[in-house]
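Chain A, query sequence.
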Amino acid sequence: MHLDDYQQLAARTLGRDRTHEQQLSNAALGLTGEAGEVAELIKKHLFHATPLDGDALVKELGDCLWYLAAFATVQGLSLDDIAQRNIDKLRKRYPEGFDPERSRNRTE
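Chain A, predicted structure.
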């Protein structure tokens, strides 16, 4: 599945009766909340000796993706474009792959 295809399908469940500000707030707060749930799974795995539940992780990451797609849609942005621009930035920053030295001494 392409990111823009996902974005279009996810947009069906946006709740378009909300104002622009409400949609932005819902996307921002929802993304933050779902990222927190991902962090909670990892915390329990690392510090509470709980087996990492891969299925729960996939579900929470999917929820993060939904809110990211919602954010992009509300702002009129394309997930494909966001992804490409991020890869372009990373290629410029780390042309040979991740390098801790380049990471510590970034110019941008």
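Residues 3-77 form one domain. The radius of gyration is 17 Å.
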